[in-house]
Every structure is written in C-alpha cells, then in structure tokens.
Amino acid sequence: MRACVMFMVVFTTLLPAVALAQSTEAEALRRELDQLRRQQEESQKTIDALSERLKRLESAPPAPAPATTPTPPLGQAPGNPSSQMTPLSAADLLRPRQPFGLYQQRGAGQMLFDMGVTGDFVANLTQHNVQKAEGGTFPGQENTFFPREIELSLFGQIDPFASGLVRVEAGQDRRGGDINVSLAEAFITLLALPYGTQARLGTMRNRFGWSNNVHEHDLPWVDRPDVYRIFFGDEGLRESGVEATWVPDFLPFYVELLGGVFNGENETAFGRGVLTQPLVTGRVRAFFELGDTQALQAGASVASGQTRARLRSTLVGYDLKYKYRPDGWLHPLLTVGTEGIYSVRRVERGVDVDGDGAADFGEKGWRDSFGWYGWAELQPWRRWALGARYDSTQYPDAPGWQWAIEPYVSFFPSEFLRFRLAYKHTDRQQRFDPAGNGGSARLVDELFFQATFILGAHPAHPF
Amino acid sequence: MPKRFVLLVVVVIAVATVAVPMSQAARKLRVVATIPDLKSLTEAVGGDLVEVDSLTRGTQNAHEAEVRPSMMLKLRRADAVVENGLDLDAWADVAIEGSNNPSIMRGARGRIEISRGIEVLEVPTSRVDRSMGDVHPRGNPHFSLDPGLAPIITQNIVDGLVRIAPEHRAAFEANRKAFLTQLDQRMAEWMKVMAPLKGAKVVVYHPDMIYFLTRFGLVQVGMVEDRPGIPPSPQHLVNLIRAMKDEQVKVVLVEPWNDVKLANRVAEEAGARAIVVASSVGAVKGADNYLAAIDYNIQALAKALQ
C-alpha cells in the first residue's frame, strides 16, 4: 500500500513535467521544420540568382583588371611573389635549388596537421675537476657544445572529437656519443567529453607543477631547475598513462582540477612501472587576473607511487607565477615565479648493531627532503630579457643539500630565434663524485651559451 | 522522515526538470570573440540576445596575445566563439582547447570563423618561409577594419549564431540589416571625406591597414618594419626615409602597441607625421565600437593628409 502511495506521488509530480517537456519538444521540432523550409526556399532563390549571374557573365566580354592593387612594401624580401614570377636564367638553373617546400604542397592535397621543428644547442664551460667527476649541470657533456634537443612535433585534430600530438626528439647524452632518437611525447586529447572534462591518453610530460610541463627549449633558463633534476631526473617527470581535467564554470576565477594514473616508470622518484601499483597524480591550478596588466597563477600538485624496491614515494609540490605586462606591451616587463617540492620516501636503511661498520640488518624508515627555486625576469625591451634563478635542494636519497645561483641574459632576434648566455654557481654540501673516478664537484662554476630556433608551426604557450 | 526526504528529492528533481530548460531558453547567448572588432560586430548583430566578451583588448597586438587561463574560463562558459581566422588569432586554439568546452572546439557548431567569403589580399603566390618575416601563408588577415567587408563578416556571424540559436534568425537578420543601413550612411560620408585624398601615399609600421587603405584608394608605399614582425635595421630605416622623401609621403600609420617613438622619429626625419591609428576597436580613445574606430581612422587620416 505504501509503495502504491509512493508511486502515485512520484507519478503525479513528474507527469506535468513530462507533458510540458513533450509539448516544448514538439514546438521546437515544428519551429525547426519551418526554419528548414525557409532555408530551402532561400537556397533555391540564391541558386537561381547565381545561375542568372553566371549566364550573364558567360555572355559578357572579359572584365578589366581592378584599378587598385596593393603596392608591395619597400624592403620586401627577395623571395617576394613578383621576383619569383620572372623566368629563370641559365645561372639560376645552375644554382642549387630551394629545399622542398611543404607549404607549396598545400592546395588540393593539404596536410591535415601542423608540423614544427625546434632545435636547441647548448655550450658549457666549467672546471676540469667538474668535467672529470661528471658533476656539471649536463653530466658527461662538460666543456662541450652539443645538440641538447632537436624536436619534431606533429599536431592537429584527429577528428571532431580528439586532437593528437607526437613529439620525437633527438639529442646527444654523452660527450662524443651517438645522437639518440626517442619518443618524447605522443598523446591524444579527448575534447568532446561532457561537464567541462577532458582526458589525455598516451606518453606525456606530466602536469606536475608549472615548469615540468614545459619543454627544455621553452624554459626561461638554460637548464631545468635543480629541484626537478634531482627529484625526477634530468628530463623531469614524463610518464605513460591517462590524465583527466575538469574546469568548473561556476567559480568567479579559473580553476583546473587534474587527476592522472600512470605506469610510474620514472627511475629517480618511482620506478615500479606497473599499472597494478600505479603512479597517481593530482593537481589544482587557479588563476587570478589582478587588473588588465597583472596576473597570478597558483598551483599545488601531488604524485604518489612505488619505487623499484616496492616502497612508497610521494611528492607534493607548489607553484606560483606572477606577471606584470604594461598595457599594450608585446611582452611582460616582470615575471616572478617559484616552485617547491616536498618528497617523502620509504627507504631501507642498514643498522649496525655491533659497531663493526657493517650493517647487520635492514630497517625500513621514512626520509623526507625539500627543494625549491625562485626566479625573476625583467624584459624592458622586446628583444632582451635578463633574470636570475636561485635553487636550493636537499638530496632525496642521501643526506645534505646544494644551492645554486644562475643569472642570465636572453636575446630574441625574432619570435623564432633566441640566444641565451648564463652563468651558474653551484655549491654542494658534500663531495660529489657521480663518475666514481676520484673527481670532485663540490663547487661548480659553469658558463652556458644556448641557441634555440623554431621552424614551422609551434603552438602558443599558456601563461 | 525517510519518506518525506524521498518526496522532497522527487519534487526537487521535478522542478529542476522543468525549470532548467526554461532558464536556459531565457538566458542570453554567451559569445566570446577573439578580437575587439569582432566583439563589436557580434554585439551589433546579436543585439539584446547575446552577451559578448573579447579575449584581447584593442591596445594589444592580436598576433601575439598571451594565452591566459582567464581566457579559458570565458571560453568554458561560451555558447560560441567568433574568430578572425587566417592565422591572426591562431593562439586562440590553445585557449579553446584548455577551456574543456566541446561546444566550441574546431568543427563544433559554436565555432564561427568570419574569414569565409573574404577576398583575401597579399596571398603569397610562391613559396613562403620565415625569411620573409612573420608572413601569413593564407594572406593578410587584417580585413576586419575594412568597412566594405563588414557585410560579409556580419553575414558569417549571423550564420554562426543561427546554428546555435535558430529560433532567433529573424532577430539577428533584422539587427544586421539595421547595422548595415547605419554603415551605408557612414560609408557615404567617409567616401566623401576620402575622395580628394585618393592616391595619397602612406607608410605603415606593420602591414595591417592594407584593406582599409585599398578601400579608400590610398597607396601603401612602405613599412617601418623590415619585414612583417621583424624590427627594422638602421639601413632599412635610412632607405625608408629616403623613399618617403622621394615619394613625398606625409603620413606614417602606427598601432598603439608598436614603437610609436620610432614611428615619430622616422616621420620627423622624412618631413612627415606619425599618427596612431585605431588598429582595432578600443585601440585609442574614442574608438569604442566598430563604426567609431573606422570614423577615428578616417578623420585622423584626412586631417594628416590635408
């Protein structure tokens, strides 16, 4: 009986809603039909008018050339259209031909995606003992000029529901070594998911913090901050898996929430590499416009997984970035930022009971460490920027810490070419001999030169 | 108690089922334009039925807008986005993709590109590369400030808005007609003002006025930039000043976001005058809407060329 009463209540409550919805739907359909009918009539009229015009044009004499044609600008590049139209002389024919032009291939058979190449070359000079210990910022590459990252990017829409990106990079890891080619990133982004969500699947630079997601050549410094290189390895955090984001639309400011599940293949921080014990990531990012000229972005990130030894490793990070861009300026005048990572790892330590210097048994414990950097950049002129970064990082798997200061100056001849000169002083609390050959790299002074170019398409970078 | 709770839930759901569609039908369409010119034109066409926002301001260079998350928030709430196309606002792709709004992704109904049907000028007919500067392979994208192209642009906007709100077609078309009537009247006045100046030679800082100049019969004989987007070398400036003297150029047109001091210096050396143009709606004081921006440019040019 109770059930019957309940059913009646639900039925009587929903009935008017359903009836109203149905009548609204019928009305909408009727309107749509009328609309379509009108559109068809208009299309027919247009076709008739065009047919009439075509007939008139076909019977009329050819029209004279337009009176006003834009005058080519002074100082036009040698490759301007008019110069290209002149017939080739014998000397021209003997000269080496222009390279294969992708853009010329467009037209009937357009490429349905964009392609870009970036090249990033670095030269570094440092002390001999640092070179011997391979303790510089670019281990094994001290006192060399080397191609750090030559990257081919292919990106575009896969279909109306997804976009794709593939990045293949080549670079030299060791002095005099071979050029290694590897897959840097390859992922699809599902764009048509409901409720303000989006998902990314594949191999990607994780959106952990602000700078981890930025490629080497796009960083505002020559090298990745120490905290990232020490906590995640030279390349930062790059994993295979799935990331999903949600952007709520009811808040007065921008917030993005992110969650991800990955293999956990990063050898430095995790290394388990299986989905049954995955690396789980999360991030929240908020953005505040402080008027038309200033903006602040704040974020918090977390990544938790297992190390190769099946021990828990969790990293929590914060990031802040502020920009001041005077109205009408093509570039920011001042950029200030900071990121920090707190790492908590379960580690196995040897315990020496009898005092003979040798571990008698292993004991599990927690080791925590913290690293951060702060950075400021001033760009008073469009082509020049100068700044400095301060790094301070504890070692996650050993006692001690290091700090570094890195002033730099960047010159941009154009949007697609950049040169950078930097000096970095690193002070390590303990003797550092990663090569194990007796070399020492406690105090390191390095001079960097970086040349970066972009060929072809390159997507804009968000704030 | 549980029974009352269930009843309450049922009533809330029932009310929501009716109220949400009604409120959606009542609210204005949210449209986001990439540049202020398109915001102004969309407002003219959409009237009271739309609420339009712009991703950039008139004082910014539309080529190099910084993609801010605040843009993504605007786009997240948008029913449609109006973009210029021809690679002028290519940065908007990144903002749109970051908005997580499937209604405005490329290929969706809410994506309105207004370059359709425009007779594009300066389309390269040979191989192009970056040695020619920041060249646009599909032609010069700065057509929005040519009032003669406003009928095509507004038609594209109407077509796009009708895709997402077909029930308002008549209103959009009526608004467009009213706007074009107003534009026709102003166009007749502008043509009258510019008629005696036909053939006058001008120099631009960046090649973004070619449609406007062509419409009113002015001739662009050079530009301050060495090549589009590339700052001038001293040698280029020397050649330019010499050419300006030879050609008796009286005016250098400069955008508010460009190097106005350099434009002034070049103009001074060549015995000309630099004027800051409304390179977009809102670029200068008084250019608050589309018609006002065109009017500002006409009056400024007429004054400088007399």
In a nutshell, what does this entry contain?
The complex is a heterodimer of chains A (463) and B (306). Chain A is an alpha+beta fold. Chain A has helices at 2-59, 81-85, 90-94, 128-133, 226-232; strands at residues 114-126, 145-159, 162-172, 179-190, 197-205, 238-246, 254-262, 279-290, 294-306, 312-324, 334-351, 361-381, 384-394, 401-414, 417-428, 443-456.
Overview of this protein structure:
- The complex is a heterodimer of chains A (463) and B (306).
- Chain A has helices at residues 2-59, 81-85, 90-94, 128-133, 226-232, and strands at residues 114-126, 145-159, 162-172, 179-190, 197-205, 238-246, 254-262, 279-290, 294-306, 312-324, 334-351, 361-381, 384-394, 401-414, 417-428, 443-456.
- Chain A is α+β, with helices and mostly antiparallel strands and 463 residues long.
- In chain A, β6 and β7 (254-262) form a beta hairpin.
- The longest helix of chain A is centred in the N-terminal third of the chain and has 58 residues, at 2-59.
- Chain A starts with a helix and ends in a 7-residue tail after the last strand.
- Chain B is α/β, with parallel strands linked by helices.
- In chain B, strands 2-1-3-4 form a four-stranded parallel β-sheet, covered by helices on one side.
- In chain B, α2 packs across α5 (150-164).
- The longest helix of chain B is centred in the middle third of the chain and has 26 residues, at 169-194.
- Chain B is elongated and about 90 Å long.
- At the A-B interface, α1, α2 and β8 of A face α1, α3, α4, α7 and β6 of B.
